[in-house]
Amino acid sequence: MLEVRRVTDADERAARIEMVGASAEDILCNDRKRARALRFSRPGFDPRKWDEFRQLGWLMLRVSEPEGGLGCGLGELCAIARHMGRGLTPEPVLAAALAASVLPDPQRERALAGQGIILPAFAAFGAAAPVHSDGRVTGLLEAVPYAAGASMFLVQLDNGAALVSPGGEGVELRLAGTHDGGHAGVLSLRDAPAVVIDVDLTTVREHAALALSAYLLGVAEVALDITIDYLRQRRQFNKPIGAFQALQHKSVDLLMEIWLMRAAIGAASSACDAGVEGDELRKTVSLAKARASKAAAVVTQAAIQLHGGIGYTDEADIGLYLRKVMSCGGLLGTERFHRDRAFRLSGLLP
Predict the structure, then answer these.
(1) pTM listed for this prediction
(2) What CATH number does the domain containing 69 carry?
(3) What's the half-sphere exposure (Cβ side, CA atoms, 13 Å) at 88?
(4) Is residue 6 very low, low, confident or very high in pLDDT (cuts 50, 70, 90)?
(5) Helix (H), strand (E) at residue 140
(6) φ, ψ for residue 46 (rounded to 5)?
(7) How far apart are CA 112 and CA 114, in angstroms?
(8) Any long-range contacts for 14-17 (C-beta under 8 Å, 24+ apart)?
(9) Which is nearest to 188 in space by CA: 129, 126, 142, 124?
(10) Same domain, 125 and 92
(11) Sign, CA torsion 208/211/289/316
């Protein structure tokens, strides 16, 4: 007897996310070698590759269909983020895509046409956002990834947002290197002329934290894959060291960390796409980000230990994954911040 299965919205969403992820996997499959070569350079990513991602439509992923975008959810964005993490892809596509979803039409159209790169500059969780008065903005924003590549910043304000040019009056951009060979910018604004926009970047910041969690998931997945391959190849006492039970148990512990991370991020992206708001949004994002920051650190640190001395050399790719987690694991809120926030919003802390 022929079995007929009713296709639900959840089935369609899962299929769409799987399709986007498979496409991203094919496009990003060789990015680790490229990411290694781009370390310690400015702007830290390849403008030609950026343009390729733009032409693929990744920047318009979160832009609604009536506004000329693809109208995809966070599930699709997280699918791309995961594969970017797997390849250590340095281009700030995720941040730019989230910025494009709230930009006014003229700026969005220029960005999507490749006429400049507009990156969001979020206020750190718990820190005061810049303030604006009479079209001028004053404040300090730290840890803006790959800021050297931005032609304009979408700055989070205490009430709304503003477009600021990095070379404009009253704008100082200082760059500092990060552990992974990239850089982050400190944006200092002193009565800087700005185009004020009536959009709320607090929700966009939550979505960015979730996308970063998915990126960390990809980093952790490949770090474990590389380590398992090494345990199979490295021999001692005439057998692969992966045959020793203690190392097998350790590998299973790391796999469980990844499974839990994957489940938390999947639940959070589903909730966001279902339209959760306010405290419920903050709680579900914090649960995912706390899990991702912790698990990615645990997996990559253990991976270095399981590699032994070779893991500490720059030639070993496993070190690239540890450095990436060291650089971005605490961005958009540390594990401690998000854990405490999730507990407070759940009523487990005062």
Answers:
(1) 0.96
(2) 1.10.540.10
(3) 27
(4) low
(5) strand 136-145
(6) -95, 115
(7) 5
(8) 16/72, 16/75, 16/76, 17/75, 17/76, 17/78, 17/79
(9) 142
(10) no
(11) negative
